[in-house]
């Protein structure tokens, strides 16, 4: 089983990690581009992920993350646990979470009770149906937020579906991350449930219906090894299988009425 310690010239090593539990994950709120931080649990998850990678002998040459602090801080903690805080890190809005539009800040269970679990599932996970859009100038609108001041206004969203997220995450992978992997560099990406699902869909050649059923747990590294033709020759979560299974179930149940 190949990992970044044993991968050679004929393989490429990539690890994805979803940020640890955020303040709004804990409250079961639609988060999207809202820039909330990690909870104490989320920091522990990130630390556990970093230790698991170190224990398994992983190492990296370059890192990528989003422009949202929950992913940035997760990466910081992982690298600290691996004694790799000196690694270069590239921050890109293209790796941001899917923008949930006017749903941002709403409780998922409350939304399920009001609109039905099926509708919430469509809003959360459909491939090409966008939630209600923000009004321009809304405080949640990235056009009026300082951290996106250098991003061209015409690419900033008012709402997104998964297909929209793929439309910015995958080109970023192709233009920035793929060349690094093909040059033999070992890459770590810390991002979000939907931006990572965008990549997983492409790597695993999943259909829109299949990606709907994929749940990525918080704070658990997902290691890929590819051959030179971009076939997946190994894919595995790094950590305790029972803990990982419980986290996957928790993600799947977020949009259900209680």
Give the low-pLDDT segments.
Answer: 1-6
Helix and strand composition category: alpha/beta
Please outline the major beta sheet.
6 strands, mixed
| Sheet with most strands: strand arrangement | 3-2-4-1-5-6
The SSE string, one letter per element, is EHHEHEHHHEHHEEH
Within CATH, the superfamily carries the name Phosphoglycerate mutase-like
Q: Give the overall silhouette.
A: globular
The overall number of domains is 1
Q: Radius of gyration, rounded? A: 17 Å
Quote the distance from N terminus to C terminus: 41 Å
Note the total helix count: 9
Q: Report the helical percentage.
A: 25-40%
Classify the beta-strand content into a percent band: 5-15%
Q: What is the residue-mean pLDDT, rounded to a whole number?
A: 92
CATH C-level: Alpha Beta
CATH topology, by name, is: Rossmann fold
Write a structural description.
With 258 residues, the chain is of the alpha/beta class. Helix 4 packs across helix 5. The protein is built from nine helices and six strands; from the N terminus they run E-H-H-E-H-E-H-H-H-E-H-H-E-E-H. It has one domain: Rossmann fold. Mean pLDDT is 92; it is low at 1-6. It has a six-stranded mixed beta sheet. The chain has helices at 23-26, 40-55, 69-81, 108-115, 117-125, 162-182, 193-204, 208-211, 241-252, and strands at 11-18, 62-65, 89-91, 187-191, 222-227, 232-237.
């Amino acid at each position: 089983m190949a990992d970044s310690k044993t991968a050679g010239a004929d393989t490429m090593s990539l690890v994805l990690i979803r940020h640890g539990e955020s303040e709004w994950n804990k409250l079961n709120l639609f988060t999207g581009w809202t820039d909330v931080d990690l909870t104490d649990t989320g920091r522990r998850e990130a630390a556990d992920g970093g230790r698991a990678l170190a224990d398994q002998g992983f190492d990296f040459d370059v890192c990528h993350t989003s422009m949202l602090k929950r992913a940035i801080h997760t990466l910081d903690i992982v690298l600290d646990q691996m004694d790799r805080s000196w690694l270069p890190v590239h921050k890109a809005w293209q790796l941001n979470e899917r923008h949930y539009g006017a749903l941002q800040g709403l409780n998922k269970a409350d939304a399920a009770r009001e609109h039905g679990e099926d509708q919430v599932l469509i809003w959360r996970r459909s491939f090409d149906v966008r939630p209600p859009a923000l009004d321009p100038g809304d405080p949640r609108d990235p056009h009026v937020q300082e951290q996106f001041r250098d991003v061209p206004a015409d690419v900033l969203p008012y709402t997104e579906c998964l297909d929209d997220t793929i439309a910015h995450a995958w080109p970023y992978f192709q233009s920035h991350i793929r060349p690094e992997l093909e040059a033999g560099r070992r890459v770590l990406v810390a991002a979000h449930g939907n931006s990572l699902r965008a990549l997983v869909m492409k790597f695993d050649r999943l259909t829109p219906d299949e990606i709907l059923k994929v749940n990525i747990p918080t704070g658990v590294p997902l290691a890929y090894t590819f051959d030179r033709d971009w076939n997946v020759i190994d894919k595995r979560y790094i950590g305790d299988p029972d803990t990982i299974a419980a986290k996957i179930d928790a993600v799947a149940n977020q949009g259900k009425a209680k």
